Amino acid sequence: MTLTPPAAGVRTLADPDTPFAVVDVHKALRNIERLARRADRLGVALRPHVKTAKSLDVAALMHDGTHCPVTVSTLAEAEAFADGGYTDITYAVGIARHKMPCVTALLRRGVTLRVLLDSVEQAVFVADAARETGLAVPAQIEIDCDGHRGGLGPDAPDLVRAGRILHDAGCLDGVLTHAGESYFAHSPKERRLAAENERDTAVAAAGTLRAAGLPVRTVSVGSTPTAHAAEDLTGVTELRAGNYVFFDLVMAGLGVCGIDDLALSVVVTVIGHRPEYGWILTDGGWMAMSRDRGTAAQPRDQGYGLVTDLEGNVLPGLVMSAASQEHGTLTARDGADLPDLPIGTRLRILPNHACATAAQHRGYHVVDSARPTGPAPVVQADWKRITGW
Question: How far is CA 49 from CA 203, 252, 263, in A?
């Protein structure tokens, strides 16, 4: 294949100061289409979790540029997406009383903002806020399907108690669960069982509420591993996932995706060598990659990230094995030779956890691997949306 060099004045990954985040739009679109097809086949609505990219531009890729329903993890994200025209938002972290004024302000703007709770106490102050403001505050009850981080069991007495308090105030929307333990499901069978348990637990909780005469509109499930493993979502109304747009080394380690599917990377520069220790030093440490070591619990520990050249080709045996705030240490493993990478060489690091790495950066430079241009890929666009809200 003959590669055409970039035209004069065209920016490439060799131009911006390092470290910086890069999104491969071709891979991101491929990942998005993969889950969209699956949701269609399963007959459920897809509500992407935008905490991963924290970007209006990336969110626009998820639904052909239209304002699809989204999930957020902070009210700052909710406000930013509301400012961007999104009106159907689920805030999927347990609500606290002091956050209710922000919630009601968004409701007054015409945003359908659902809140999440797992206690009678929370149901009471949500219902009180609805009565005081004259605004129905749509609320979902969190159901614990595995990880015990939050949520009520499908047979917990407080499930119906909280549901009735919400219903009487016109606030009960439904139930929501998240299979957090699926991030430790290392085989297709384990992920399929996690997806079945996630579905069954949420549907059972909805059944408990309905048996008590309480209406349940929404039955929401999802995590990136279970979203790609589910084969039957009977009784579920919507599927949530976020990491799938970029994927990362944790998802690759589980077998949910391949290394070639990772759409996010961080460009760094070689700044030194310590041959006596077998080190290559770069200017990208944990401030660029995050401190997430999610693969450490997997059979294959990828350190702080795998190393590729600027085109995205993995350099065999080279891993970012250590990080301080602004320094990354690259070492060889599996008997590989330490490559000759002169000072000034630019590399890309594939992250353990895309959500955490993205949050370290204020924007993305965009490349398109479907349009190869040479050793330094052309920057297709310089997205200005702020990350890390």
Answer: 21, 19, 16
At 386, list the tokens.
Answer: 């702020």
pLDDT (tens digit, 0 to 9) for every residue of the chain, 389 residues total? Answer: 233 344 556 899 999 999 999 999 999 999 999 999 999 999 999 999 999 999 999 999 988 888 999 999 999 999 999 999 999 999 999 999 999 999 999 999 999 999 999 999 999 999 999 999 999 999 999 999 998 899 999 999 999 999 999 999 999 999 999 999 999 999 999 999 999 999 999 999 999 999 999 999 999 999 999 999 999 999 999 999 999 999 999 999 999 999 999 999 999 999 999 999 999 999 999 999 999 999 999 999 999 999 999 999 999 999 999 999 999 999 999 888 999 999 999 999 999 999 999 999 999 999 999 987 888 999 985 444 434 33
Distance CA(11)–CA(16), nearest Å, equals: 8
Of 233, 325, 240, 214, the residue nearest 62 (C-alpha):
240
Q: In angstroms, rounded to a whole number, what is the distance separating the alpha carbons of residues 204 and 199?
A: 8
What residues pair up with 305 in beta bridges, in sequence order?
Answer: 320
**Maximum pairwise Cα distance, the chain:** 72
Locate 344 and state its tokens.
């000034």
Task: Using alpha carbons, list the distances in angstroms from residue 109 to 28, 48, 99, 173.
Answer: 31, 22, 16, 19
* 29 conformational bin, left if phi > 0, alpha if psi -120 to 50, beta if neither: alpha
Q: Where are the alpha helices (DSSP H) in the chain?
A: 25-42, 56-61, 75-83, 100-108, 120-133, 157-168, 188-211, 224-227, 249-254, 286-289, 354-358
- Please state, in angstroms and rounded to a whole number, the distance separating the CA atoms of residues 349 and 312: 9
Closest CA to 267 of 229, 312, 333, 208: 312
Strands 346-350 and 305-308: antiparallel
Distance in Å from the first CA to the final CA of the chain: 42
Bond from prior residue into 19 cis (ω within 30 degrees of 0): yes
Which element (helix H / strand E) includes 142? strand 139-143
Cα–Cα distance, 125 to 115 (Å, whole number): 12
User: How far is 22 from 349, CA to CA, in rounded Å?
Assistant: 10
| Region of 388 on the Ramachandran plot (φ > 0 left; ψ -120 to 50 alpha; else beta) | left
The tokens 């399929």 sit on which residue? 192
Prediction pTM value = 0.93
As given in the structure block, the two tokens for residue 369 are 């691997």
